[in-house]
Fold each of these.
Amino acid sequence: MINIVNYNVHCDDKRRITAVDIKLKSFKDEGQEAISGHPLIAVVSAAFYQTTLLTDSGVSLTTTPNTKRKDIVDLSVVLDKNSNLSSVDIGNFIEALQKALDETKIF
């Protein structure tokens, strides 16, 4: 099971959303071990690309594994400043990403 444990929304001086940082953590599920390392990155990437944030408003995506804790991955999505996304749009994206994480089974 992979959960979004934290996210930060970055805005510019005109209150336009410019980036979203997301921290994801893998937890032990009943009868399964926590996913770590490259398999965790693969599941997170597959789930992320089920959403449309990057194709609709994104400029770049950075996926960074935590070097000390193999069960944590950080995603950073830089957004187009002219996309006019609202906090409701970001909330909908976070919900869609968590749903995609819950449904994605690669291994």
Amino acid sequence: MSERVTGAFPGGPRKRVTGKVRSGPPRLARVEEIEERRATRSSHRRRRRRVKRAVYGLVVSLVVGGGVGVWLGLRSRATLEEVRQEMAASKRASASDLLGLGDVDLSGEINRTLLELWRMEDVEYLRNRR
């Protein structure tokens, strides 16, 4: 048991430089230096986390946007002729809905209305002539 224990203990402190190579006494860090290093590390850590969150947000938004675009693109597989027919049908439906005509022939109703307006103008002209 008179032998001296050398080396490092498992989990214990380790020397950076052996005693024979060291030129001066060991230097201990001052409290200000320790606090400065700690503040620098924490600010770097916060910055890295912020950048990581921004990158994750960008990636997620791109993936969601791409998924929605693909879904809408696959959902609307119509030829040009089908689109034209749908537009024409919607125009007819909206015009007859605005006039409250339902499925009535629109051109016939327009002609009837114009004839009625012309008759009213003729009547007013005759009335004002006397």
Amino acid sequence: MGRIGLSKIVSLLIALLAASNLSIYLLMSSENQRLRNELTYVRSRLYENEERLKWLENEVRTLNVSYRRVLDSNRRLDDALRYLQGKLILPYNFTLMSIDEFYDRFTFKYTGEMVEFVSNATGWWDGSEEDFLSDLYKIYRSWRDYYIVDKNFTMPQEWLPYINIGGWNYDRTRIELGGWGRDITYIEDTYLKEVLFYEDNPIMVPIDYVARHFRYHRGLCFSYAFVLVTLYYIYSDVTGRHISAAYLSIDIHAIDSTLSHGCVLLKNTDGLIAIVDWEAITAEDCMIKFLPLDTVRTLHSRYWFGYQIDYIGVWMRPNTGRRFSSYEEFQEWLMKEF
């Protein structure tokens, strides 16, 4: 080969090398552009996802706040339902109260007519001990004269609407507060799922209080003693002269039977007592007389034809009662608590 042949071969190799380099350059440029485009697309999607994530985080915060408001409202609803459960509705002023609260407030609640009755009977207290004992007798005598003993009388019932709500169920909800993996923080809370109103129509429940018995002023020993003890409350409240008074339940043991009966127990500040039955057991010269318990018990037994008398229970305002299993237990309560 001559120099011309070698030169052609070198030129051909250079041309091939240049063509190869150009081809590689074009291929790499194309791939580089593709990767750039893909990177731009990924960055664009990343930005979009970051914005979406911010929106979702904001929505989660909003939902979290809303959920907590719902929980708070639910708790207040639960409180309201619990308050309403078993409540009476007083129609004249739409006051809501439980049956127990009603009886505490209204059992011995007297009326203006009852206050006037005591005023007419006594003229109120003049401050002397004699007038006080005389007034106690006058209250008994006035009520006894006004009261009609009628074993066939039935007290008409009065009714109040009664709200009966219940039967609600609770579910538990778990919400995520934040974190990743094991660091995720959760909170669980209960919410009221369902409320059942057992009655479509208001339930009506019977009620009883002293003013009704005064209004009808007839019946047997219960109504008689129930009102009389309240009349003594009125006298004490208006005059400011303290006197302990209670409805007294007794058993009278006759020859072949036991009679349950109601009367009134009084106690003064010296620890002496008086009992007013159909008649004033301890009275002298138209005045109530306070005596030791044993003496009063003897007089009370004599009043009931010599039968044995057991003092088995007391009832007083606001609406409290006490039962006694023995005379000694009654005596201890009388001296220490009444």
